[in-house]
Each structure stands twice: as structure tokens, then as C-alpha cells.
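Quick start: load a record and inspect it. Here is 1,4-alpha-glucan branching enzyme:
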Amino acid sequence: MSAQGHDIQGEHAYQQVVTSPDEHEEREGRSLITTDHGVIRQWAEERGARPATVPGSEYDGRPGRLLLDFPGYGGQDLQEISWDDWFRTFEERRLNFLYQEHKKDGTPSNFFRLENPNRQD
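Running the structure step on this input writes:
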């Protein structure tokens, strides 16, 4: 498995594709998309977020629902997992990471979503 991630799948006319931690948004509030492990990890760590899953959502001994656990945002109990396990599952599912660096007002954004472009809803 490459640390670079897999190719981005699906239609993404409204998102800026990011392929390196050195790339940043074209404008504040812009939706970004990546599969690059370095980009994802840097974005999460800048916000103090840790890789996590929902306990009980495991499937075949692998992490179930992938999340990022942000400090100070309670809610459901999350189980911290290693970045290796998080990225292995991310790759196996060929997910895309959609996110924002900043809100339109310039403040840092914690918005992210994992997208499975092959899933039929």
C-alpha cells in the first residue's frame, strides 16, 4: 500500500483535488478532496484529531466506521485506532476524504466526510 493513497474516483466538479501536504485551498471555504495519507494526517493532527472507529462496528476483524476524534467534541464513545489501521481500512474501501481547511470567514474548519464513490445509495 502506498502512503500516497489511491486514485480519486467519481465526479468532483465542486471540489479542489489535493495530492500533497504542500497544497492548500484556492480560497477559504473551498471544499477539498484527497486520498493522500500525508494530507489527511497533517489536517487531522493540526486539529488535534486522532484516528478512531465506533466500538461494535467492526467487520471481519477490521475497523468498522472510520472517524476522527476531535478533542472537546463529546458524543458517542469512540475507540482510538492506529493510523496504520485507519489508512489500511481507508484504502481497502477506496474512500475519498472530503474536507475544508477554513470556513468562508477564515476560521479553521473541522469539516470532513469520508465518501465511497462506488457505493450505490
